[in-house]
Amino acid sequence: MELTVVKNAVCTFCGCVCDDIELHADGQRIVETKRACILGEAWFKHHTAEKLYPPALIDGQEATLDEAIELAADILHKADLPLIYGLSNITCEAQREAVWLAETVGAVIDSHTSL
């Protein structure tokens, strides 16, 4: 099978926005990455566009989005020092909202890159 090669792909996973990555795809999946860090390589090779989960889960069970939002608000309201963690692979607008939420509820923010 012939591979499609994409040069100068941009990785948005950790926020560094590396823009010199080369990707090789077999038509279904990315099978090789060049110049991507370990986080970027894992993201490109294992990221899917398939819908794997319902819009919301509570304790592993399907729930409505309204139920999940209500539970999340209750958890944040009761928390002594909530942590907002991750924020990779999301838009700047979503990150802005996460910072607003952290400031509103007195949370701290950490990214997965601190590992």
TrEMBL record:
This is Formylmethanofuran dehydrogenase subunit B. It comes from Thermogemmata fonticola.
